[in-house]
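Forwarding these from the shared drive since the link keeps breaking.
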Amino acid sequence: MPLRLADLPRRRYGSPGNAACPGCPETMGLRYVKMALGDNVVLVIPAGCSSVIQGIRPKSGINFPILNIVFASAASAASGMSSAFEMLGQDVKVVVWAGDGGTADIGFQALSGAAERNDDIIYICVDNEAYMNTGIQRSGLTPYGAWTTTTWTGKTEPKKPLPFIVLAHNVPYVATATVGYPQDFIEKLRKAATIRGFKYIHLHAPCPVGWRFDPSLTAKIAQLAVQTGAFILFEYENGRFRLSPYSGMYRDPKRRVPLEEYLKLQGRFQTVLKDPQKLEMLRAEIDEMWRWALLLEKGMASPELKK
């Protein structure tokens, strides 16, 4: 039976008046984590927006036990915490909640190490595609052509294909999700919680401030990213790859919503919309991700992504 949001817990997991911006996807995502995993969860959060959203000690705007840690050490701290709980005989799910900078850039060495060791943690990359908390600087996960305060004419490099890089570690579970389809995210979280070893979920998280859109459109933009093919929802479980149903229907480019419908709602892509060459470069970035996804779906590419 399909998961219904009406059947999920109704408790408040984020306090009113916390420090999140209007339309913040991180408060949405944190709510779904708690709905999926319940109270037996500890979060490990490196520097980022969620460090600020909590508020100032001794009070917190987020109803989780949280370890705040330095940028580069979230995965290693979580690995040690998971081992400690196991030694104590306590069944506690240790979840890293880290941004794109703390995952793809500054924290990648710890992430890769934990994946290589197959440490028993759930790692969630909350991908808002820039260093939002420190002034909207570009990260390795900023897409081609996007405006940031350090790429004010548009980023000239493609987005790092991080879910595929983690998949190449051949860990038990890798998935992508978005705040626009909460049922899909919750189901993937619950599946990850049943698997022993390293689990990675890449969460698409549109940021109204950094992406320059109206805060009421967060969920719509997250859904458009999937419907246009700009973000692919998939699962990789014990060597088997499959597109999630919300993305499966868009494997044929002819069935997708035009990419411009996604881009035009965001101020960060205005130079792309005005430059046909930049628009084609961004399409090429998206097409490359789909090429790998479809090869993996057909079993024609190994987890190591050999060319």
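-- next protein --
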Amino acid sequence: MNDWIRLTPQDHVVIVLRPFAAGERLTLEDGGAIAVADDVPQGHKVLTRPIGRGQDVLKFGYSIGKAKADLDPGVWVHTHNLETGLKGILDYAYEPDGAIEGTSQAGTSAEAPTGGTEAAASAGAAPDGAGFERTFMGYVRPNGEVGIRNELWIINTVGCINKTCEILAKRGEAAFAGRVDGVHHFAHPFGCSQLGDDLVHTQKLLASLVNHPNAAGVLVVGLGCENNQIDAFREAIGPHDPDRVKFMRAQDEEDELEAGMALLEALADRAETFRREPVPVSKLKLGLKCGGSDGLSGITANPLVGAVSDRLIGCGGSAILTEVPEMFGAETILMNRAEDEGVFGQIVSLINDFKQYFVRHDQEIYENPSPGNKAGGITTLEEKSLGCTQKGGRAIVRDVVPYGERIRKPGLTLLEAPGNDLVSVTALSAAGAHLVLFTTGRGTPFGGPVPTVKISSNSELAGRKRNWIDFDAGRLLTDRSMPELADELWTQIVRLASGEQETLNERNGFREIAIFKDGVIL
């Protein structure tokens, strides 16, 4: 493995692939050498060209911030000497870049990386290639949608009955083992005393989960006195099959556990009528999400997910990209891939509306990344965003969907949601994602309502947290090419969708939801 990587020839920095000690010599691509001025952790940046105070520092071929002082080659570039260059709410112009559906490009720049590794090179995962699966074994529902699991879900309208629903799920799991793929309840604290948009967000989000095809049957449990009344929630759900969605108001039942188990029994009977059958991958919907990142996330895991996303879209499938604050600084890349000016306008509204959300709460729009991201080598929000948006590959942006709603078109859709892991994965699931590809350089055990595939950006994390990480993208820096790993990840996704394999979050029983809140609770 080489000691460093430069992502584009115009970049001012290289990313070190091992720790460097102050005084060590770093040999560049032209044979010249520089002395490293500081101790630099793996995944962090070393400057290779002089930069003046206030000048842009380039990585990915784009500015990742401005120098706080005059900087000499060899210095460690991080929060002590680099600051964001992003300011205020911007005006945008539509400048389409000619993105081609179904092609894949790992970086945000057309240039290939230098430094002896092909980690961020073009994935070459075009959909008209040979050798990868075009079908999976799924459950075709009566409405034409397809599920990759045949589960029973318990959705409560209000947090007061979380424990009641938890008991029902445990009893159902024991009673119906072997008949369904699982019985799951997703605890949350909301549904009572919420006002305005908060209540609407809760209803929309939970209603979209009710309509998810991974659930063969859904039991909706209400209390009886909450704001989110069952009758109002039924309207939020919309048209539905009464044999698939059952309702119970706990205050109306003498024994709500006995009544709930009887309803679950009826749902299990219905679920048993479904069998897996061959389904084209065009029916598959992938959620795209990154968690705590490191300096390798934008080199390995995120471009790999972008390659797989492009392949699926090229086959007629769907991918959903969210984390709006982590588009700040890279938003024009997505805007210029909009299908038309109408979609461009939707993206502009998505970005500026979220910035206004920060302003309303007197928060800095361009706040630096989290402590974990900084420790991993991410210095500014634009650096995080330039790596984050690579999960969307190079596909045309077809649509923009509000928080809590389901996607409407195949192709790449942008979804309104924050960067918070639990909130955004829940929103991706509600939007219709059958599974979520979750890249991380720091690691996390959690999982959403749907299978959550944890993809590590570095092999050290994958080796150390084998009970968390499903796929090691760090091998791009050692012995695998992007096309090879794209094929491997694609095969794993098909196996997961076909029920031949479980994600670690499924195996460990880690399934959670979190609902976005921006309002008053009485």
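The chain has a mean pLDDT of 91. The chain has 13 helices and 23 strands.

- D.
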